Target: tRNA-dihydrouridine(20a/20b) synthase [NAD(P)+]
Amino acid sequence: MTTDVMVTLKEPRMIKICAPMVRYSKLQFRTLVRRYGCDICFTPMILADSFVQSSKARDNEFTTHEGDEPLIVQFAAKTVNDFVGASVMVAPYCNGVDLNCGCPQRWAMQEGYGANLLKKPELIKDLVYQVRNHIPKPFTVSAKIRLLKDIRKTITLCQTLEKAGASFLTIHARTPEMRNEPIDLDNLKLLRDCIQLPLIANGDVKSLENAEFLFKESRCEGVMSARGILTNPALFSGYPVTPLVCVQDWLNITSTMSTEFQCFHHHLVFMLEKILPKKDRVLFNSLQNKSSVLEFLENYYNIKPNASNLTELTRCNFSTSHVTCKEKYINCWEDDSTDFLGCIFNMNS
Model:
């Protein structure tokens, strides 16, 4: 990985970024949004302890290919050993790692991950500091945080991370208690005045116009979209809704990379949300296999996958020499008790 993320973030323009979304920021989707003006992509959040200790977790949670950069791998971590260990493993295959300090989901808070870390600024500082000391630049080490109710504490936290060696910070301009309320733009602007690091603004980016407004008002270096880019992967190219050429690209990409049906179908459900009439949408959303989805799209839009060569994935040889713990595997995303849509949107939007 040769791209320097910091050089990109210092370009005198709005840097467009695809957010880390559970289940939905995988390689296939990253490949798609890069075709439509996305400058930097994040992986879904990965549990660092599972990644370090389980080859199954590594194979399931991380895939990449030659064109998948700049790429930031986001981890949920609460111990230095896990965050450093996971970061060292992925470092040859990405441009940086990010620490999730914003997930407000109950399971994450109870386990000490995500927004729970905001109560432990010294731990966040140590996690960032130790990874920064283990992996040389231009590899980036960053954190994605939410605002604290007391903006002064948020400013102090960001200044602490700045001193600890953080490369940049992503600010989801809501508190952990907020869900669909408008973002707190005033406090985001105040934060920008107090921090020297490059900042990425996150929240309420559902169109290119939203992104440009947030970029201009916040004076942050980059703008991140989650829910908006999921519904319209061509958002950063200025399309108001998903264009059919983007749907065609999705069919082509997923015909060259092995893609689980649920992932393949759910992305199409989101993409077609604003362009399919309701009765047709209900039918499409209920389809149960890939052949029926492809038949629907060919009959309705006269589009079908254009067969091409399989995409060659990067073979990742993760070093486990520093891992002494016995293997275990935790995959919270397969827990049926997890709120599906809540997990996507509340966690990393």
